[in-house]
Amino acid sequence: MGWSERILRRPLLVALALVASVLVEASPVAAAPGGAQVAFYDSELGLWRMEGIGDFYYGVPGDQPMLCDWNGDGTETVGLYRSSSGFLYLRHQNNFGIADVSIFFGIPEDRPVCGDWNGDGTDTIGIYRPSNATFYLRNTNQTGFADQQFSFGDGNGSPIAGDWNGDGRETVGLWKQADGYYELSNGNTSTVGPNGHHGNPGEPLVVADFDRDGRDTLGVYRAGNGRLYLRRIGEAPGAPLEYDVGFNVGLPVAGDTGGSPPSPIESGDGGSGVPAGAISVFPGFSIQNAIEAAPNGATIYIRSGTHRMQRISPKPGSTIIGEDGAILNGARLLTGWSSDGGQWWVGGQNQEGTRLGVCENSSSRCRYPEDLFINNVRIEHVDSRSKVGPGKWYFDYGPNRIYIGDNPSGKTIETSVTENAVFGNSPNVTITGLTVEKYANPAQHGAIDNRLDNSDAGGDGWVISGNEVRLNHGVGIKVGKNARVENNNIHHNGQLGAGAVGSGSVFDGNEIAYNGEITFLLDWERGGTKFADTTNIQLVNNYVHHNQGPGLWADDNAKDMLFANNTVIGNTKAGVYYEISYDAVIRDNHLEGNGFGFTSWLWGGGIVISSSSNVEIYGNTVVNNADGIGAVEQTRFETAKYGPHIIQNLHVHDNEVTMSDGLTGVAQDTGSMAVFTSRNNRFENNSYTLGPGNWFEWDNRQMSYDTWRGYGLN
């Protein structure tokens, strides 16, 4: 009988003891990241059962099942190891058929394992030999000698392998099913690394990447309730994530087979802080898969810990709640550095996001959304390897290498990869309690963004509340219509802290600080906030400080805006900047120490109005900014949506202004004096604290307070 006849026939039934034996000894592993599923192999029948694929026969009694990416195409397919002969039979598809590859590797006592040992993207065979407690790893699926061998453990247990740190290489270990104990090799050497217990004694183990973050996870299958319990290596003690995979006969085997990943259990009962009916998602598992498996309006409870490189598109009515300590991190950990003449590099970096924006002349790489962080500090992205030194890095996109000028030893180094954290135009979404960091969102796009793209009006009625949004490339939070953005801490984002398009949104009680870290051109778009072509936006009770650029900025035909009760301090351009827009009220704000990065003319004011009409400014405290309250009229060529871009009907009254620098008043360079004589522009009932000198601008000249009052201004 030939091989093809043996592998395709329906095998005879064998004793149940064989199933137990295989449960102990078979330790299949999924090597390639891709959102794994749980399959089952019935050793009595040679039958595979895969969710989304169906049932098919492949195997004979005694074969040990595996799922790995044997040809590097990103899909993990079935393999069988026949320990009676040391033969390996591999298929490149998950269906009924003959082996695509058959090779000899090992002797009858050996126990199989598979993984990508050398980082080339293809999984290959390895075996563990109990008689001498030695691993033998092969780098190709061809008959031959081991490329690597080393002693490990005491000869007991089943071999396992996984990419525990996301470096693209699998590391082996041993699993002792009798007591649920695992021990992992330190980099495929004889040294023991991480170790511990997981699950109950006797439960079979699976290893796979269930959330497409590039790192594998331990899972045990509990046959009594048809559920899988998963835990990340190094995860803090606590309840593992529970998944329903159903009651099945045979051995659980995990891998990215192209089917549907398991769904988390709805376990929230309203106690212990978990909302009743909420779907809990623990670190290491796909939040989007949980959303897709849930109905509209479901509550997703993101558990404490780092959820790396997740991208979430909510359904209508979704509520996404972060447990205290829940972090969405859009960056990949970088390991495996090589040294080269005072620089260090790592390869395999094929991420390359959308490039948008205008940069300062000193740096052309602000447009590139990939950032690099050393111990949570963003370092400068330079445009050539020759410029790499301490605090600088370079992405060579040709050979997919990253270079740094700091010794990586003992440091946590990450590079942003994922485009954004939460996006999409589903209506009535609530997002609260999350930390969102290190996403590779392009300029003008939010790490949290209720739009599909910049042309989309956005999902109506989002509430974004109580989040910390930091260290993202473009905008921290950007929204379309009718959103409430409240009580968030938005800081150290690359281009802007927050922004909006569309109408009807409210920004209330946020702290917006230290944004504009990346060298986008200040006059293009960089700073604390920017609101462009919006209507009926309210900015109230926010604390906006120390941003590189304006604090609160509206531009390009904004209309009907309210700036009220904000504290705006230490921004490098104007505290409040209202540019080529219409119909605003700026009242009861405290503005101090703004504008000292741009002090010419009246541009450094606590409040600056640029070619905008129908603006009322009152009740503000304006203290020691580079200028006081200023309005500038210039010839602007942008499309005017609601009338000409001019200073008209400006009413500045009942403010307290203290100046130790600069000017308060109105200036123009259009050649027309109408801004002073016939446009109903007024300063009334303001109080000033001044030293001697000329502190005011009017009628195309600087003047003293007495001269200013002589024009009927005060």
Offer a quick outline of the entry.
The chain has 714 residues and is mostly beta strands. Helices cover 5% and strands 39% of the residues. The strands form ten sheets. Strands 22-23-25-37-40-43-46-49-52-55-58-61-64 form a 13-stranded parallel β-sheet, with helices on one face.
Would you write up a description of this structure?
With about 725 residues, the chain is mainly β. It folds into 3 domains: about 5-255, Neuraminidase; about 330-415, Immunoglobulin-like; about 550-714. The protein has 6 helices and 67 strands. The strands form 10 sheets. Strands 22-23-25-37-40-43-46-49-52-55-58-61-64 form a 13-stranded parallel β-sheet, covered by helices on one side. Strands 24-26-38-41-44-47-50-53-56-59-62-65 form a 12-stranded parallel β-sheet, with no helix packed on it. The radius of gyration is 31 Å and the shape is elongated. Residues about 1-35 have low confidence and may be disordered.
Low-confidence stretches: 1-34
Largest sheet: 13 strands, parallel
CATH architecture of the largest domain: 6 Propeller
CATH topology of the largest domain: Neuraminidase
Q: Helical stretch count? A: 6
Radius of gyration: 31 Å
For the secondary structure, the number of strands is 67
Strand content: 35-45%
The averaged pLDDT comes out at 88
Describe how the helices and strands are arranged.
Elements: H1 3-8, H2 16-25, E1 37-42, E2 47-50, E3 54-57, E4 64-68, E5 77-82, E6 87-90, E7 101-104, E8 111-115, E9 124-129, E10 134-137, E11 148-151, E12 158-162, E13 171-176, E14 181-185, E15 192-197, E16 205-208, E17 217-222, E18 227-232, E19 241-244, E20 251-255, E21 263-264, E22 279-281, H3 287-293, E23 299-302, E24 305-308, E25 319-322, E26 326-329, E27 331-333, E28 338-340, E29 343-346, E30 372-374, E31 377-378, E32 380-381, E33 392-396, E34 401-404, E35 413-416, E36 422-423, E37 430-432, E38 435-437, E39 446-449, E40 463-465, E41 468-470, E42 475-479, E43 484-486, E44 489-491, E45 496-503, E46 506-508, E47 511-513, H4 522-525, E48 527-535, E49 538-540, E50 543-545, E51 552-555, E52 559-564, E53 567-569, E54 576-579, E55 582-587, E56 590-592, E57 605-610, E58 613-618, E59 621-623, E60 627-633, E61 651-653, E62 656-658, E63 664-668, H5 674-677, E64 682-684, E65 687-689, E66 696-698, E67 701-703, H6 705-710
Parallel strand pairs: 22-23, 23-25, 24-26, 25-37, 26-38, 32-33, 36-39, 37-40, 38-41, 39-42, 40-43, 41-44, 42-45, 43-46, 44-47, 45-48, 46-49, 47-50, 48-51, 49-52, 50-53, 51-54, 52-55, 53-56, 54-57, 55-58, 56-59, 57-60, 58-61, 59-62, 60-63, 61-64, 62-65, 63-66
Antiparallel strand pairs: 1-2, 1-20, 2-3, 4-5, 5-6, 6-7, 8-9, 9-10, 10-11, 12-13, 13-14, 14-15, 16-17, 17-18, 18-19, 19-21, 27-35, 28-29, 29-34, 30-31, 30-35, 33-34, 66-67
